[in-house]
Amino acid sequence: MNKVILMGNVGRDPEIRYIDTRPVATFSLATTERARRTASGVEIPERTEWHNIVMFDSSAEIAEKYIRKGSRLLIEGKLRTRTWQDLNTLKHTITEIYVDTFEILR
User: Where would I find the beta strands (DSSP E) of the chain?
Assistant: First the structure.
């Protein structure tokens, strides 16, 4: 099973592009684990992870209209990793969350 559930804040306004006539929205989402202290007294600092989000079709259109930097989202989707080679023959790998469903939170 490949399922990801994230709740976090949008890091930048969605960027919209079109593959043929199909809209695709991409943006970053930050998730944060709060700082805590273990039972033995060790302080674990706050930790923020950044995720690359991809939305298609009607979700992308909603993202374009309503999602902005700072918006709080609940996202469910699939993890996808892709690799490509640039003009200098350097290999790049990126992991993205392909959104199935989402909710804009207050």
Answer: 4-10, 15-19, 22-33, 36-37, 43-44, 47-56, 72-85, 91-105
Q: How far is CA 106 from CA 9, 11, 13, in A?
A: 11, 16, 17
Q: Return the structure tokens found at 80.
A: 């996808």
Q: Is 90 left (phi over 0), alpha (psi -120 to 50) or beta?
A: beta
DSSP bridge partners of 53: 27, 97
Are residues 87 and 95 in contact, defined by beta-carbon separation less than 8 angstroms?
no
Query: pTM above 0.85?
Result: yes
Query: pLDDT of 22-48, one tens digit each?
Result: 999 999 999 999 988 888 888 889 999
Q: Compute the distance between CA of residue 82 and CA of residue 41 in angstroms, rounded to an integer.
A: 41
Tokens 């929205």 sit on residue:
25
Find where tokens 């699939």 sit: 78
